[in-house]
Amino acid sequence: MSCLVKSNYSHQLSSTAMAMCSSFCPQIPNQLRARPICPFPTKPQFTLSVKAFSSETSNASSKADGLSTRIGFLGLGIMGSPMAQNLIKAGCDVTVWNRTKIKCDPLISLGAKYKSSPQEVAASCDVTFAMLANPESALEVACGEHGAASGMSSGKGYVDVSTVDGATSKLISGRINATGASFLEAPVSGSKKPAEDGQLIFLTAGDKSLYELVAPLLDIMGKSRFYLGDVGNGAAMKLVVNMIMGSMMASFSEGLLLSEKVGLDPSVLVEVVSQGAISSPMYSTKGPSMIQSTYPTAFPLKHQQKDLRLALGLAESVSQPTPIASAANELYKVAKSHGLSDQDFSAVIEALKAKLQNPPK
């Protein structure tokens, strides 16, 4: 069996108060997109011969001489399914699990194996990835009855790519480490389309050796990766990023509605914004559909509000004022109350429309 691995780097393999580490490691160098072919036989343990890489130049890529691993993937929702699919299409040996088995069927048809519990997946695989919707689900799948930790042992690795708070990540890490296995948190920046295209950004922290071992797998699923030090730092970085994103979308929604109300064409506003200093792919991608009041789900609104809530908890733990994010969070809560939880987070604009139609007396 062979796999295609991106060679953009050296191929080395709920919600409670948080105590976050504050030292961050340097950024990993920019990626190359070349895909050399490497053998990927099935063996009980995963191994990789390690080569040094340069942080000075994008040409400093090295090839894995020998890589073999059995990969587990837990959670096949809007993000997990395309991530696992990219691993399968790359020729990797993947075993999947999801609470609703029907979501596993498309991946099984592509060649994935199936196990009936996270424990069985972890027991049969060398490294197990988990992509769950919230801290409660992440903790249950990792540490609950028949959870992944029950199937972990020395020499195995657990990589949680869910977005959770630092306290939850540390709880999971402690439970995994107690089995003798290694833990890496690796929340992703990106939504449905980047997940499908293998363009995610991994924000990793935890066991450095495990990070080096799974780097080729992260490169299949993503375009870049950062190693940020101790467990909790990856979670913190992801929450800060999504706090900014949620606030940006709320402000963008206000701008679209204001432009229309004063007689401007909101489509032109999208074009102007897209060519200026505040240009963002989010505006140019989401803007046209928002103007049409359609919100195809790439990142569910309920998850954006959850991330804002967790980010506000993080800020509270270090006495950091966040008035803008706090106001944005309230707007997303209003949107949820209007039944928009499963719509894309850009549907937050509907909460503003509701306020316009029903102004306070």
From TrEMBL:
Alphabetical keyword list: NAD, NADP, Oxidoreductase, Stress response
GO cellular component: chloroplast
Domain of life, per lineage: Eukaryota
UniProt keyword NADP present: yes
6-phosphogluconate dehydrogenase NADP-binding domain: residues covered: 70-229
Catalytic activity of the protein: glycolate + NADP(+) = glyoxylate + NADPH + H(+); 4-hydroxybutanoate + NADP(+) = succinate semialdehyde + NADPH + H(+)
Domain 3-hydroxyisobutyrate dehydrogenase-like NAD-binding: 232-351
MF terms (GO), sorted A to Z: glyoxylate reductase (NADPH) activity; NAD binding; NADP binding
One Pfam family linked to the record: NAD_binding_11
InterPro entries (alphabetical): 3-OH-isobutyrate_DH-rel_CS, 6-PGluconate_DH-like_C_sf, 6PGD_dom2, 6PGDH_NADP-bd, HIBADH-like_NADP-bd, HIBADH-related_NP60_sf, NAD(P)-bd_dom_sf
The family this protein is said to belong to: Belongs to the HIBADH-related family. NP60 subfamily.
Role of this protein: Catalyzes the NADPH-dependent reduction of glyoxylate to glycolate as well as succinic semialdehyde (SSA) to gamma-hydroxybutyrate in vitro. May function in redox homeostasis and play a role in oxidative stress tolerance by detoxifying glyoxylate and SSA generated in glycolate metabolism and GABA metabolism, respectively.
Name used for this protein in its record: Glyoxylate/succinic semialdehyde reductase 2, chloroplastic
Provenance organism: Lithocarpus litseifolius
